[in-house]
From TrEMBL:
<keyword id="KW-0255">Endonuclease</keyword>
<keyword id="KW-0548">Nucleotidyltransferase</keyword>
<keyword id="KW-0695">RNA-directed DNA polymerase</keyword>
<dbReference type="Pfam" id="PF17917">
    <property type="entry name" value="RT_RNaseH"/>
</dbReference>
<dbReference type="GO" id="GO:0016787">
    <property type="term" value="F:hydrolase activity"/>
</dbReference>
<dbReference type="InterPro" id="IPR041373">
    <property type="entry name" value="RT_RNaseH"/>
</dbReference>
<dbReference type="GO" id="GO:0003964">
    <property type="term" value="F:RNA-directed DNA polymerase activity"/>
</dbReference>
<keyword id="KW-0378">Hydrolase</keyword>
<dbReference type="InterPro" id="IPR050951">
    <property type="entry name" value="Retrovirus_Pol_polyprotein"/>
</dbReference>
<dbReference type="GO" id="GO:0004519">
    <property type="term" value="F:endonuclease activity"/>
</dbReference>
<keyword id="KW-0540">Nuclease</keyword>
<protein>
    <recommendedName>
        <fullName>Reverse transcriptase RNase H-like domain-containing protein</fullName>
    </recommendedName>
</protein>
<dbReference type="InterPro" id="IPR043502">
    <property type="entry name" value="DNA/RNA_pol_sf"/>
</dbReference>
<keyword id="KW-0808">Transferase</keyword>
<feature type="domain" description="Reverse transcriptase RNase H-like">
    <location>
        <begin position="3"/>
        <end position="101"/>
    </location>
</feature>
């Protein structure tokens, strides 16, 4: 899963490896994006990055739960979220939310240009309205529930 945030938009590209004709290749499964809420715009960069990971896990839980997967991102804060010693209340809530994935999830930091799909989504976010499948209400906190 590739995740990327750009300004006011979050984007995720979920991919799966396929094996065929003695070759393996990566194919897309799902793409999601959304605009950030006004309250989220006040978050500092590290909080925004971690919020984004939790949002992506929540929206794609049916694809990810019980599977071994990688989160590929260019955010350092996402990788450090699991090991924070004194997180603030948002970060603590998000740490708890991703605990169920901890054994199956690997976070890979990639500062390069490998996440082009998610990057493209983050530059073209759908408005945060009820018709959008990625809609998040203005006062909802991301919570992962299976």
């Amino acid at each position: 899963m590739y995740i990327y945030a750009c300004g006011e938009v979050l984007g995720t590209a979920l991919h799966q490896f396929h094996i065929g004709n003695d070759k393996s290749y990566e194919g897309p499964v799902c793409f999601i994006s959304r605009q950030i809420k006004p309250t989220e715009a006040r978050y500092e960069a590290s909080q925004m990055e971690c919020l984004f990971l939790v949002w992506a896990l929540e929206k794609l839980c049916y694809y990810l739960y019980g599977s071994v997967f990688e989160i590929i991102t260019n955010f350092n804060a996402v990788k450090s979220l699991l090991n924070m010693k004194n997180p603030n209340r948002h970060m603590l809530r998000w740490q708890i939310a991703i605990q169920e994935y901890k054994g199956n999830m690997t976070i890979v930091h990639n500062a390069g240009n490998i996440d082009r799909n998610a990057d493209g989504l983050s530059r073209w976010g759908l408005p945060n309205i009820p018709d959008n499948p990625s809609f998040v209400s203005a006062n909802a906190e991301p919570q992962i529930a299976i």
